[in-house]
Design brief:
10% strand, two-stranded antiparallel sheet, alpha/beta, 302 residues
Length: 302
């Protein structure tokens, strides 16, 4: 017997987990994830070329949107309406305000990859207090749309929950739906300011880190952190404690001489436009990072 549900929030808030009724299966819970970039590129990469990753980003890996952006070079409006109705429907059904949600989403898109506390988030969005802001964020997280990304303490191997955190989206279809630029075509992404492009690229990496962890059955795929010191910062500490830095443009070995001093036994993967490799640091393009995910070419949910 297989039970399924179309409401992501039921997966998080459901009270009946069927304990003792799952027999001896090694794994019983699965998420219907975005299709892999690997699969999309193998099917459509010849036609889309080096713009394939941008098309994948705008669609959030959703097959409906990917089909249209491949065939008609744009994300269809019915898909945007589908995402908007889903988000609004879930939030309003729980008694929350559509107006406050719009305010919060605008603030989250404005702050991008900057750490921010719940109190400031509430103040900027016009919400009553940090508890209200946290409630909205938690529900968006339950909808598998974004995650709170906490600062990582490498000495204690744990997240610092009292520090300001980032809020990367892990469903980029939600970003395409609510972004003020209303991006539907690949060229509209390319005309964004570099700051916005860098933010969306970082969130694409966040989505992929989350997708890989969920695919492999991680009990907590949202456990994605970032590392920060007084002088340096690393964008992502993945659930397996893999360090990942994201650069929109060029990067080279000299930019990361400090990494070996801070983490002599760790390795850093840098996503940039200029591949390179040293003892502790590897630079790869966004295409190579997404394509070489170490997963089978044919995935069971695809």
């Amino acid at each position: 017997m297989v039970t399924i549900g179309s409401k992501a929030i039921d997966l998080r808030r459901g009270t009946e987990r069927l304990p003792g009724r799952k027999r001896r299966l090694k794994r019983t819970d699965y998420l219907f994830l975005p299709i892999s970039y690997n699969q999309f590129f193998k099917t459509c990469g010849r036609e889309l070329g080096d713009k394939t990753w941008i098309a994948y980003l705008l669609a959030g890996g959703a097959p409906l949107a990917l089909n249209d952006i491949y065939q008609f070079e744009r994300i269809p409006e019915y898909f945007i309406e589908l995402i908007r109705d889903w988000i609004y429907g879930e939030l309003v059904a729980s008694g929350r305000s559509r107006l406050y949600l719009n305010n919060l989403l605008r603030v989250l898109l404005r702050f991008g990859g900057q750490p921010v506390g719940y109190a400031k988030l509430a103040r900027e969005a016009g919400l009553a207090n940090n508890t209200v802001a946290q409630g909205y964020v938690e529900q968006l997280s339950d909808l598998l749309s974004l995650i709170p990304q906490w600062q990582w303490d490498d000495d204690k191997h744990q997240h610092l929950f009292r520090k300001p955190c980032k809020f990367p989206f892990v469903n980029l279809a939600v970003v395409s739906t609510f972004h003020p630029a209303s991006m539907r075509h690949v060229h509209e992404f390319e005309t964004l300011p570099q700051k916005d492009q860098a933010m969306l690229l970082e969130w694409l990496v966040a989505q992929e880190i989350w997708r890989r962890a969920a695919y492999r059955g991680s009990s907590n795929p949202e456990a994605v952190g970032f590392w920060k010191s007084e002088k340096h910062e690393i964008d992502f500490v993945a659930p397996d404690e893999q360090f990942i830095e994201v650069k929109l443009g060029k990067a080279g070995p000299l930019d990361f001489l400090w990494f070996d001093q801070c983490f002599p036994r760790k390795r850093l993967n840098v996503i940039c436009s200029t591949p390179f490799e040293t003892k502790n640091v590897t630079g790869v393009t966004i295409h190579d990072f997404l394509f070489n995910d170490g997963l089978p070419a044919s995935l069971p949910y695809e």
